Amino acid sequence: MFKRSDESLIEKAIGGDAKAWQQLVSRYQAPLYYFGLRLLGSPDDARDLLQDVLMVLCRNLAQYRGDSSFKSWLFGIANYRAMDMLRKRKATTEFTDDHDFYDDEAPSFEQQLYGQHTQRMVQQQLRTLPPEQRLVVELRFYQQFTFDEIADQLALSSNTIKSRFYAALDKLRTQLELTDVEQSANF
Amino acid sequence: MSNSQQIFEAWLAGKLTASECEQQLDQNSEWYSRFQTAQVIQRQAKAPFFAPVPEIDSMSMFAQQWQRPTKSHSWWPKLSVAFSVLALVISLSPLEMQMQDSGLTLSWRGAQQMQQQQLETLLASYRKEQQDYIQTQLQGTQQQQASQLILLKDYLTEQQTKERRTDMLELVEYLNQQRQSDWHYWQENYQPSQARLDLGTSQNTQNR
Fold it and tell me: What residue segments make up the domains of chain B, in order of their start?
C-alpha cells in the first residue's frame, strides 16, 4: 500500500485528522521507545520519555518547518528530553541500572539464542558510557543519523560529535576486550 | 582529518564495504580496532529488538490539541448572545426608550442640547465668516480709495503746473508786446524831437 510521507501526515494531523496522527505515532512509537530504553535503561523511564516526547510533538506539530527530516526533528526533541531526564536522575541517584528490558517470551528460540547474549553485553557496555557519548553512539548506529544531522540535533559542531563518537568507540573497545577476557577465564 | 579516519567514515557512510575498509585499515591498529568495535555495535543495532512497546494514549493528546469541537446547531446560545449585544448597545448608545401616553417612544438622549450645540457652532462659524468677509471688503475699499487719491493728487498737480506755465507764457508775451509798442511809440514820437533838439544844440555852439 502507498505509504504517506511524514510531511503529508503532519499536514493532515494539523487539519484535525486523527488517523494521520495515529499513523505518524505508530511509525515512530517503537523507535522512540527503544531509544529511551537503550539510553535510560529503564522501561518506566523509556515510557515516560515516549509519553513526554509525544506530548511535545503533539503540541508543537505546527512548528515543524521541514528544514530537516521529520525523524531528525523528532529525535532532536527526544534527545533534549532524554538528556534532561538523565540529568535529573543523576542529581537524585547515581545510575545503577540493572534492568533487564528484553522480553524473553516474545522472540523465537533461535533469535534468543543468536542475539540476546551479545546484545545484552553490548547494551551493558553502552550503559557504562557517559550520557553524551552514549547518545552519539545511539543516534549514529541505532538511528542511522549522519554526523551532521546529529550535530544539528544537538546544536554542536560536527567535530565535537565525532570526537565524542571516537572516544566512545575507544572506551567500548577496551570494555569489550575486558569482557572477553573475563568470559574466557570463566571457561 | 587523517586518511584512516576518512576511510572509516566512508565505511560508516556506506561508501566502502566492510572488507574494503578492513583491508585499508589493516596497517593502522587504532583505526582497525575502532572499525571492529563499530562493526560489533552495528551488528547489534541491526538485530531486532523485542521488548514490547507500551500503549500511550496519544489520541487524547491529539483530541485536546488539534481536534475541533463539533459545532452545535442550537440557536439558543446565539439568540442569547444577540440579545446581550443589543442590550449592551442600547445601554451604551444615547438611545432612549420612554413610555409616554401609553406609547413607547424611542429617542436620542440629549437631542435638544445636541441641536443647540450644533446651532451655536454653525452660528459662530457664520459669524466668523461674515467678519472675515467685511474685514476683507474694508481693506479692499481702503486700498482703492488710497490709490484713487494718489491719482487725483497727481492729476491736480499736473494741471496746476500746466496752468502756471500757460500764465507765465501769456505774461511774457504781454510784456513783450508792451515793450514792442513802447518802442514804436518812442520811435515815432520822441526820436524826431530828440533829433531836433540835438540839432539846435549843435547850431548854438557853432554860432558862439
Answer: 3-43
H runs (alpha helix) in A5-130: 6-14, 18-40, 43-59, 70-92, 109-111, 117-127
Q: Write the pLDDT tens digit of every residue in A16-39.
A: 888 998 999 999 999 999 999 888
Mean of pLDDT values over B48-74: 77
ipTM: 0.77
The residues spanned by each domain of chain A are 1-101, 106-187
Q: Is B15 an interface residue toward A (CB < 8 Å)?
A: no
Residue range A1-101 forms a domain whose CATH class is: mainly alpha
Please report where in the chains the cell 567514515 appears, as a residue.
B9
Are B44 and A16 inside 8 Å of each other by CB?
Answer: no
With beta carbons less than 8 A apart as the criterion, state whether A95 and A39 touch. Answer: no
| Entry field: residues in chain A | 187
B37 contact residues in A (CB cutoff 8 A): 169, 172-173, 176
Q: Is B44 on the interface with A (CB under 8 A)?
A: yes
How far off is chain B from A87, nearest CA to CA, in Å?
24
